[in-house]
């Protein structure tokens, strides 16, 4: 007689899932305000929509994303408490681009083997970042996929919903000739371009525990630097009437120019001065180790700019002052002009992500 095949024998441990929930639930509850009902463990997360009663015309905004192959670095270093910050940053900061406040978020983790402590570390990181963003973590799912993923492999994804008053929505319709671009510094690589970065590291034969003087720490520590979560700061900046914010762009996959072009109206061009900032050491290291062409770097990595605010010309000084008060490293990146024969000279970036909108021109050289 053959041995019976159980779910556990097939590689799925439901008791480990229960233990993971116990380990993470306190961190998740810290993100809950009075609008969240039902607590942890329900089939669905509940959010009291009466919080929207004060809106005249509330528009719901939603976004979903993951963190790409950055998870491979976390797995290689067996350090899982920061990848959640990356997930939240990738999701909620897309919502903030239209001026929406992220209300709640859910997550999904797929793994080859459910190790409760590892899953709890990931979710704690998600919860910590949700607190920073002022977003409730209302639910999630952890799935064990033996045979599809290795025992130490996992992937993470998330989705969030936010709200913005229709008349306060930000975007291309508000952008005008003469507007000023304000750059907000990134915390590092964030969560894009890691396929390129990992290829460069493999090519160079460097180990993650290698100390790099230019970085002041090990390569692995630099590569795991969490994505900066801008949501609360961007909302505070947008609420400052003197700053006169017209639009934001989140610099993710595709780099600065491709993402900036998406929030410009057709017929306008944003001119970006490369000389306005010094590219952080990690990006220079990637370029040197892999002999990566400048075009590939600009089309893949954020190069030190994580978010851009487009503000009215008269609001630029107030915007910079507000950024300083919020503890943000910010500077004037460029300006918006009419797209003419004169301003279209050079390699324009336009029509990215399927959006036929404005254009971006990168000028000069980096410091």
Report on the architecture of this protein.
- By secondary structure, the chain is α+β, with helices and mostly antiparallel strands.
- 31% of the residues lie in helices and 25% in strands.
- It has 11 helices and 15 strands.
- It has helices at 14-29, 70-77, 83-96, 116-133, 194-204, 219-223, 231-239, 255-261, 281-290, 294-298, 316-325, and strands at 36-37, 46-47, 58-66, 101-111, 136-144, 154-165, 180-185, 211-212, 217-218, 245-250, 268-273, 305-311, 330-338, 349-350, 359-363.
- Strands 10-12-7-13-11-15-14 form a 7-stranded mixed beta sheet, sandwiched between helices. A 4-stranded mixed beta sheet has the order 3-6-4-5, with helices on one face. A two-stranded antiparallel ribbon has the order 1-2.
- Strand 8 (211-212) and strand 9 (217-218) form a beta hairpin.
- The longest helix has 18 residues, at 116-133.
- The chain is globular, with a radius of gyration of 22 Å.
- 45% of the residues are buried.
- The model has no long low-confidence stretch (mean pLDDT 93).
- Belongs to the AIR synthase family.
- One of its GO terms (molecular function) is phosphoribosylformylglycinamidine cyclo-ligase activity.
- Keywords: ATP-binding, Cytoplasm, Ligase, Nucleotide-binding, Purine biosynthesis.
- Its EC number is 6.3.3.1.
- It holds the Pfam family AIRS_C.
């Amino acid at each position: 007689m053959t041995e019976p095949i159980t779910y556990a024998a097939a590689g799925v441990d439901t008791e480990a899932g229960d233990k993971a929930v116990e380990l993470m639930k306190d961190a998740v509850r810290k993100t809950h305000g009075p609008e969240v009902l039902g607590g942890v463990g329900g089939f669905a997360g509940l959010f009291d929509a009466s919080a929207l009663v004060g809106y005249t015309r509330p528009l719901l905004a939603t976004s979903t994303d993951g963190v790409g192959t950055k998870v491979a670095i976390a797995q290689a270093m067996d350090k899982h408490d920061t990848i959640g910050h990356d997930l939240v940053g990738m999701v909620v900061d897309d919502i903030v681009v239209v001026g929406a406040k992220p209300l709640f978020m859910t997550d999904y983790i797929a793994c080859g083997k459910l190790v409760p402590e590892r899953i709890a570390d990931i979710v704690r990181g998600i919860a910590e970042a949700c607190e920073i963003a002022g977003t409730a973590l209302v639910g999630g799912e952890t799935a064990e996929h033996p045979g599809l993923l290795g025992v130490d492999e996992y992937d993470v994804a998330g989705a969030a919903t936010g709200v913005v008053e229709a008349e306060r929505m930000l975007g291309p319709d508000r952008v005008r000739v003469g507007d000023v671009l304000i750059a907000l510094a990134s915390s590092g690589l964030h969560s894009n371009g890691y396929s390129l970065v990992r290829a460069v590291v493999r090519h160079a034969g460097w180990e993650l525990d290698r100390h790099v003087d230019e970085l002041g720490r090990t390569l692995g520590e630099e590569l795991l630097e969490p994505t900066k979560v801008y949501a609360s700061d961007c909302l505070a900046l947008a609420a400052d009437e003197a700053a006169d914010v017209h639009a934001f762009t989140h610099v993710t996959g595709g780099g600065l120019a491709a993402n900036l072009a998406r929030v410009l109206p057709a017929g306008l061009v944003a001119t970006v001065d490369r000389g306005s900032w010094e590219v952080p050491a990690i990006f220079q290291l990637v370029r040197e180790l892999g002999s990566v062409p400048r075009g590939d770097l600009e089309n893949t990595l954020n190069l030190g700019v994580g978010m851009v605010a487009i503000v009215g010309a008269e609001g630029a000084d107030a915007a910079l002052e507000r950024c300083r008060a919020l503890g943000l490293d910010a500077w004037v990146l460029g300006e918006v002009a009419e797209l003419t024969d004169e301003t279209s000279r050079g390699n324009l970036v336009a029509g990215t992500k399927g959006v036929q909108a404005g254009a971006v021109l990168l000028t000069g050289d980096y410091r």
